[in-house]
Amino acid sequence: xxxxxxxxxxxxxxxxxxxxxxxxxxxxxxxxxxxxxxxxxxxxxxxxxxxxxxxxxxxxxxxxxxxxxxxxxxxxxxxxxxxxxxxxxxxxxxxxxxxxxxxxxxx
Length: 107
Known about the structure:
Layout: H1 2-40, H2 45-58, H3 66-78, H4 85-106
Helix pairs in contact: 1-2, 1-4
């Protein structure tokens, strides 16, 4: 029975680790998206850092990416940047790949 218990603990540990890595990738991606959007809006370095943090925090409003997409579309449009939702979704895909590379490279 201990082999089964050991295997179960190993799976639980792996699941917890995988979830933590997924969370960190999404958080890093959102920071990168915030920096990308800040560049589009021509914000200063300090404003860019604050905006990137705001994008990360926006992701906690609801499950999924819709809250981040709404924030980016709204803020970019308000800043006079012509952008649509498909362009934001493409940026999300690109920044997800970049975030994964950055995290995997640092481990």
